[in-house]
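User: Can you model how adenosine-5'-diphosphate sits in this protein?
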Amino acid sequence: MQLSLGRKLPLLISGLILLVLVAASGAAYVEVERSAWTTANERVTSLAGQLADLTSASVVARGPMMKRVATDTAIRRMLRSRGTGALDTTHGVSEALERLEVPTDSGGAIEIWDRAGHTRARFTGAITAEPDAADDAQRTRLASRESSPTGFDSVRTSPFYSRGDSVYAWYALPISDGGLATGFVAQRAKLARNAASASAERGLREIMGPGIDLFLANATDSLRTTSTGEMSAQPPELESAAGPIAYRDSVSGEMLGAKATIATTPWLIEIAMPRAVVLARTRAFLKRMSVISLAILIFGALLAWALSQQVTRPLARLTAATNAVSAGDYDYRVHIARGDELGQLGDAFNVMATRVSESRAAIEQQRAAAESARSDAVAASQAKSDFLAVMSHELRTPLNAILGFSSLMLDGITGPVTEQQRAQLARIRSGGQHLLALIDEILSLTRLEAGREEVRAENADAFAVAREMAALAEPMAAIKGLALVTDIPAGACDARTDFTKLRQILLNLLSNAIKFTNEGAVTLSVRVASGDVYFAVSDTGIGIAPNDRARIFEPFFQVEMSKARRVAGTGLGLSVTRHLARLLGGDVTLRPAENVGSIFELRIPRYILGTRGLAMDDELHERALAVLPESGAVPLGGGAAIPRS
Ligand code: ADP
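Assistant: Here's the modeled complex, given as structure tokens:
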């Protein structure tokens, strides 16, 4: 389907705007996304680092509190004494332990260990004699040297470990007495959801921002827990790298994670930020960008449409005007009331239409004049033809009577004539015959000029016809003592033409040649070349002066016109001959003769195409035919038939 310019233009411009918007938004999105990742990377890294520092500080902060227990005399005394195996439940010990913050839930415990990590006293809300053997492994590990952090009197921490459904960790502060390590003040923390931990978590979340999770994890194994004791495994990607790193969590999906070690502890802080949170602002940006782009696109499309209307509407008007003018409505004018190029184009169009209309009117006038002149000429020619035909007819009838009666008298049928009378009658007859020939030629010429002659093509042998014509002219030549020579190739030459007319032409040329030659020979030569047949009639006669050559084909022209005529003739023969030759699709030309005489050459196509001329059924021709000699007998007044001489 071919779209109009009015639609194509806005579509094209809108498409262009869309392309630019998509490209610009795409580039901006890529940039914004990259910066979102950079920001998120920095954020998770710094959050992990800050929280690790905070946690480390809180561990160190436990030191002074635990130290107060460690320096308590009751505790020192107990550690100095040899243990009995049973836990110490004395009042002094209980009081000292009570000074440490009592755990609010049952999972917390405060204990005094000896150097090897064996429990000497235990306080779980109250002093107890019940030992807790399940944590012995943790106790001995923490008491051993490897667990010692930087300084001797700094707080040691155990890795997180799970027991039952809960996660625990031990803090332990070495007790020294007189420069000797005698034992430990130890406190077990339980990570669990309770009022305090929940509010702390809320606070943390507020600091970190929505969607970001914080985990505590062991540096030595893959255990990971939330601050409220919910356990999970560390993502393997983060175990091997410090991050920030993107990974896939089976529960939370695509995440960005970072970790930081908590100084003086075997713990890690892990921060996890969902990809959706990383890209939240980017998505919002994209959304905003899309809305703005859509608005720009709609506005741009409307503007493009309006602009293209501005251009195409006048164009459509100009097209309509052009169509109207080309369809012949020369009074059609366009109205584009604008000062720009289109307005100027409209004005120019109107000027042009006015000019076209004016020149058309002029042409129309000229045409009418030419038409009337032509019809006048046709009428004149018709009148001339009619006149000639009628005149010929009117002349022939009495002429035939004159010829007929003079012949009768010459033959002595009407009675005896004297020699003197015979001579005069012979002159009458010869004058009459000349007049008849003249009338016949005028009639032929009239018919030819009026285009009323018809070509009746038939197939025959052109060479044979040439020989036949030469034979016919031979007696005429013999009378004048001339030789009639033929130069015709042997054999036959199949041709298609009007042979009656060909005979007439050849006879005309031959009789002219004989007429204007007094001694020597007349030659008829024939040749065939490239689809044409050439007949040349040459003589050794008086020739034609160069000045006359151009005029001899004109009707009634005779070379000796002005002088006393030596030979009879009408001056119409060559004119008729040329008309006939052209009717056959060829021509007759006068060729320059070598020394004496003249050469006339007839050229006709060997095979005539189609049939030229009009059918001979019009009234004039009927009338013309009526006076032709072939009509056999010429009726005279009273119905007496006179035979032709
Ligand atoms: P005409 O009836 O006088 O022969 P044509 O039209 O046949 O009329 O010839 C026109 C004139 O051309 C002649 O009068 C003659 O002067 C000249 N002409 C024609 N044929 C020859 C010829 N073979 N040799 C010399 N003159 C010729």
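A couple of observations from the model: Confidence is low (pLDDT under 50) at residues 611-645. The radius of gyration is 69 Å.
User: Helpful, thanks.
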